[in-house]
Each structure stands twice: as C-alpha cells, then as structure tokens.
Design a protein that fits this description.
single chain; mainly alpha; two-stranded antiparallel sheet; 3 helices; 2 strands
Length: 91
C-alpha cells in the first residue's frame, strides 16, 4: 500500500485521482492506494481481523460520543450532511 498526502501529489495526478474517485481532494487529505490481484479475496482470518478492527473502532466512537454528550441522532445527521457534501444526490 502506498500513502501520499494530497498536497504532495502533482496537479495532473491529483486531477486524475479526482476524476477516478468522483470528487475533489483537499490538501489536508491523504490518498492510500493498494493494488490487488482481481481474484484475491481475504481469507477467513483476515476478514475476522478486519471485523474486529471495525468493532473496536466503532466502540471507540461510541465512547467518545458518550463523553462529549453527542446523541446517535446528532451523529447520524452530521454523517448525512457530510455525505451530501461529498456525494450530492441528483435532483
């Protein structure tokens, strides 16, 4: 896997990535690229590890939300707003 800060990516390459991803990249973002063979699928252990990492991260988010007094409704509204900003729905 290769990770690049957007501000370090040459303009032509950044534009190509933006075209591929379908949205503008901000200078404070990072782009991670991984090339996998088309037929490669993660084995059961790798999937289980990924699920565990996701569960751990979601637990951390829940704890942080509780500590900050953020409700699930407020969190979901913020996610919806962010998604609308990066992927507007056609009118």
């Amino acid at each position: 896997m290769v990770t690049h800060s957007v501000h370090d990516i040459p303009d032509a390459a950044r534009r190509a990535l933006e075209d591929l991803l379908g949205h503008h990249l901000e200078a404070n973002q990072k782009v991670c690229l991984m090339v996998l063979p088309q037929t490669q699928e993660p084995d059961a252990e790798a999937r289980a590890q990924a699920v565990e990492r996701i569960r751990n991260r979601l637990s951390e988010i829940d704890k942080d939300m509780a500590a900050r007094g953020i409700t699930t409704e407020e969190f979901n509204a913020a996610v919806d707003e962010a998604m609308e900003h990066v992927r507007p729905r056609p009118s």
